Amino acid sequence: MTLRLNTLSFAQRSVFALALLGPAAAAHAQPTPPPTNVVQLSASGFKEVQQDWLSMSLNTTKEGPDAVTVQNQLKVALDAALAVAKTSALPQQLNVRTGQFSLYPRYSSNGKINGWQGSTELVLEGRDFARISATAGKIQTLTMGNVGFSLSREAQLALESDVQAMAMERFKLRASEIAKGFGFGAYSLREISVSSADQGGGYVRPRVMAMEAKAAMSDAPIAVEAGKSTVNVTISGTIQLR
Question: Is the pLDDT of residue 219 over 90?
Fold first, then answer.
């Protein structure tokens, strides 16, 4: 006898398929019992170090009757500042780069354009705080904007590596203590997640100090003082007691 499946209804085909699979399908369909002797825990490590990266911005705002005039004024101010800054530039010690630039119209009460306004920014950043602050003091065409301290990329990665190793050791020690405390001889890892955070600096550089120049800046270095950054690594997960 030959049975043609394409003539059966969907329900009839489902019943026929289950009948062919037999006991194996029924066993597979049974829900898996929840695991036992599973413990969830976490451990953290942290370390505080001196911030080694300074980011200092200088800027200026210009106004004029038309966009070209304002743009030229900004260019003159920025070019003069760049000429001063580049004489002291040194890779990783004093990096020089341009920052934000904006140019937009001003409107009168009747909605018509009655002038233009724009701003430009120069950023000095690096590890040599004295070189950066002295260079900023020599720039006369821009005024002080913001000063931010943080960790350099290299210091951040090295610190995270040390703190992660610390957190891992604490996690393993706590897991062993819990297993022993419940009368088990060992444990195995089931799931692990690692998260890190930093306070006082890091990948996002905080603006920890802001100053507005009330008059033309002198050649005196800008007084700066770095703080500290704390990196915290937390390891969370579950273990199977054995």
Answer: no
